[in-house]
Amino acid sequence: MSELNVVFFFFNDDYLNWPQRHKIDPFVDNNPGVTVTGVTFPVNFMTLFSNPARFVKFLLKPRRKIREGVYSFTPFGLLPVTVINKNRILINIHKWLYKIQIDNFLDSIKASQNRITWIYYLWAAPVFSDIVEDSKLLVYQCDDEYTMEGAEILKEMKEIEDDLLKKADVVVAVSNKIYDARKQKNKNCYLVPNAIDFDFFNKAASADTPLNEEMKDIPHPIAGYLGVIRSWVDFELLGFLADSLPKVSFVFVGPVEADVKKKADALGSRPNVRFLGNKDREVLPGILKGFDACLIPFSLNEFNLSTNPWKFWEYLATGKPILSLKIPDFEVYGDIVALYTTKEEALDKLRVILEKVDDDKVKRRMQLAKSNDVVARSKKWYDIVTKRLDDKNRNVGK
Fold it and tell me: Are residues 225 and 81 in the same domain?
């Protein structure tokens, strides 16, 4: 696979602490001639007001070398990608604008013209379609039910995805529901669930890991949530649980998105609810160490039922009990995970898992997490993509 460039849409700005990087690293580790270019979310004029720190970072360093063979590049656009995709004229302008910037960057690092384009964020497909067309292989990674918002089908997103599914050489879905909905539309569709950096999150179970300072003054028992706090969270359920269990502390770790801030503030007004904000990755084991139960308090809708969230595997690695919406992919683990469909059921099960530690279940949760370690899962990603590339190369040679 020498002399190949993998272009990934989109990289996280903080690559080294980003779970997706484990899907990228094997391409470089196993092939000295391969480069990976991660295109981060484009910056635009509105970024100056919505995220001034990121805008300044872009001005200072729009391109950088992360490690040998791995680069990141932040393109500049006039408007957010989600706005651009609603107007054909804006799409065409930005297709041209982005292609010039990305081609210039790839030339500057002497990247191969043999290209794998990897679409991880569906909104990227229309405005980067010219780059897709120039690719030797197109990979579409479907982590969420992007065509839905709650229970509502997003017609615009469905059209974008249907077009992408026709063009993609490889489609990878992380949950059974997502896989079942797409395997009929692309014969090269694979199910590869999310995985876990086991050694890192298992530190929460180690006696050598100190309890995070912010957790020390919070009364036990603690029911905690780790991750982005956004519209998928069931605030009505959480309010019910917090009111019903006044002696339980409910702790939320992660950024609160603007569209749910009022709901989060209302939930946080309760004396037994705390929002600790966004935290650096390295402190997470010390925070998780203080949880007595871990929460996946998602609303009951089609979007959430189609997911397979990272946090499930992160929680498992700690060995701690988990209360989660009854997501279909988790039903097979119902003997070691407390699953609910109603708020009353959630309340009853939370009481039970906070009552007593089951050492056997602690061990089995850790074993399940370890069997889904990211190293083995990354190899599966790598094997799928490289085999498909080899198949295409053989067909071209015939």
Answer: no
